[in-house]
Amino acid sequence: MNQKKPSIKRVKNTFARMILASAATISIVTTIGIVCVLGNEAYSFFALPEVSFVEFVTGLKWSPLLGNEKHFGIWPLICGTLLVTCVAALIAIPCGIVTAIFLAEYAPLKVRAVLKPVLEILAGIPTVVYGFFALTVITPSLQSIFSGIDVYNALSAGIAVGIMCIPIVTSMSEDSIQSVPNSLREGAYALGSTKLETSLKVVFPAALSGVMSACLLSIARAVGETMIVALAAGNLAQLTLNPGNQVQTMTAYMVQIFLGDTDAVGVEYKSSYAVAATLFIMTLLLTWIGHNVSKKYKEEYS
Asked: Where are the domains of the chain?
């Protein structure tokens, strides 16, 4: 009996390691496959005679569907994407952090038991619902308050994306705040600090690594959002800093191409892969920045 138990335990550990290794391998292989497909299709796009890589990188006009007057400057799509992302970040980050501090430091257990499921419901709502909400509720509300707001605009799309990202910021930030040792709080109270001073000057800086990671993850989520911007932001690629104007994001352009109205071997179809590769590089940079920021501000407690 004593010899069988270690043997069974070794089998279980080996099986668990195989499962974990298989999951990691699938993730790595999938990522490599995505990179290879995007790289190959983007290369075939830039190999076309009517396409210039220099124009793609530096051009300020994006109009691949206008007959003979086609332009492939990526910056209008990047501008639309960043404009929606900035609006979303201005909504999600402050609201998410304040909510996380309230839940972790101030909210009674009964209040937390109610607010946490509500936030989880927000995270589970399909993005197409957010898109219709932005188009039918947020945009008319903005038009009643401000003049010059287009029917499709970056502001309403950004607000909807920001609302969608609030649970991401709140959940990760709250976990980071709650992981701060109580000894830091008790030390601050012993020195005469108030609840607010302890939360903002002691606990929050100690949890800054996790909070920054949550913010950058929400920004990356906003950059890659598709259905909300496809429904509410519009499909006019233009360089503008006015969030009340219609814009087109990189994901919205890909949706427009993959609806099936373009030739599957044409330059328009291949251009979507170049846009996707650009979006992949932007997301990769955000991930890299998030890793370095998290590493820089990481606090270790014994």
From this structure: 4-47, 71-297
102, burial (CB in 10 Å: exposed 0-12, middle 13-18, buried 19+):
middle
- Give me the phi and psi of 246, to 5 degrees please: -75, 140
DSSP one-letter string for the chain: -TTHHHHHHHHHHHHHHHHHHHHHHHHHHHHHHHHHHHHHHHHHHHTSTT--HHHHHH---EETTSTT--EE-SHHHHHHHHHHHHHHHHHHHHHHHHHHHIIIII--HHHHHHHHHHHHHHHHS-HHHHHHHIIIIIHHHHHHHSSS--SS-HHHHHHHHHHHHHHHHHHHHHHHHHTS-HHHHHHHHHTT--HHHHIIIIIHHHTHHHHHHHHHHHHHHHHT--HHHHHHT-S-------TTS----HHHHHHHHTTTTS-TTSHHHHHHHHHHHHHHHHHHHHHHHHHHHHHHH-----
Dump pLDDT digits (tens) for 145-188. Answer: 888 888 999 999 999 999 999 999 998 899 889 888 888 888 88
User: CB atoms < 10 A from the CB of 122, how many?
Assistant: 16
Each residue's pLDDT tens digit, 84-102: 999 999 999 999 999 999 9
Cα 284 from chain centroid (whole Å):
12
Fold of 71-297: MetI-like fold (1.10.3720)
Q: Two tokens at 130? A: 């957010």
- The neighbouring-strand residues paired with 72 are 62
Tokens of 56: 């793609």
